[in-house]
Amino acid sequence: MSLQTIIILILTGIAAGVLGGLVGVGGGIIIVPSLVYFLSFSQKAAQGTSLGLLLLPVGILGVLQYYKQGHVDFKVVGLIAIGFLAGSYLGSKVALSLPHDTVKKIFAVLLIIIALKMLFIDKPHTEDNVTQIIQI
Length: 136
Prior knowledge:
78% of the residues lie in helices and 0% in strands.
């Protein structure tokens, strides 16, 4: 592995970590495009590599900081994790059965939809939304 590749990978990790800690985005939003465009990974290889990072406790320090401030609800985490396990298995099976270009387009469209929704469809919220949801 070249020094340039190592530097790109480390910078990608730093960017994903900072954005993950800053705004709570999954690293895949940064890692997948970086691997595809800077290191010429296939879309499927980039997604698989990004998922591989989830197997390690990469977010533990960020979670710890949010937890100290009372901003982590482990009931919600547990429930989402149950769905995430099933969803990631199903999603990976579907992605691996589709052509490379189709997977790449699905990823791009998803990012665009999320970005547009966040920019133009603002839902009212309060700091206590998580607490209100759990009490229901």
